[in-house]
Every structure is written in C-alpha cells, then in structure tokens.
Amino acid sequence: MAYGMVLSGLYALAILLPSLAVSVRRLHDTGRSGWWLLIGLIPLIGAIILLVFTCQDSQPGDNRYGPNPRSGDNAMAT
Q1: Residue 68 contacts residue 56 (beta carbons within 8 Å)
Q2: What's the whole-number mean pLDDT along residues 17-22?
Q3: How far, in Å, CA of 30 to CA of 53, rounded?
Q4: Distance separating alpha carbons of residues 70 and 26, to the nearest angstrom
Q5: Inter-CA distances, 58 with 15, 38, 45, Å
Q6: Is the pLDDT of residue 1 over 50?
Q7: Phi, psi values for residue 65, rounded to 5°
Q8: Where are the alpha helices (DSSP H) in the chain?
C-alpha cells in the first residue's frame, strides 16, 4: 500500500508543472493574466469561475500575450 501512495505522489508532482502551464496558456488565450489561477483557491466558486474562463473562446487576433493559436496565419498552424 505504501508503494501506491508514493507512486501517486510522484505522478501528482510530475503533472503539476505541465498542467499549470496549460492553464496559464489558456487564460492568456482569453486575454487574462495567469494570476487568475489563484482564484481557484476559493472553494467551489473559484473552480466554477476558472471553468467558465477556460470554456470561453479565444480572443480574435493578437493580444498582449501573443498571437491567437487558432488563427490561420501562424507558422505553427501548418
């Protein structure tokens, strides 16, 4: 049983940084700062607000964080 707890702890640490990066990138796509992730610390309401923010469509065109990844004129879209 102790091995399962160690493995799940290692797994949680391994996915922490990538999940934070994806969340911040998604907030940037909607034109918000990555600091909005801290609103998730508010029980229940914070998670609902973050869910709404991440479900919104990206800002059209460029924003202060860079170009829209869904626009067709990006080099990475090919």
Answers
A1: no
A2: 94
A3: 7
A4: 12
A5: 24, 20, 22
A6: yes
A7: -100, -5
A8: 2-29, 45-55
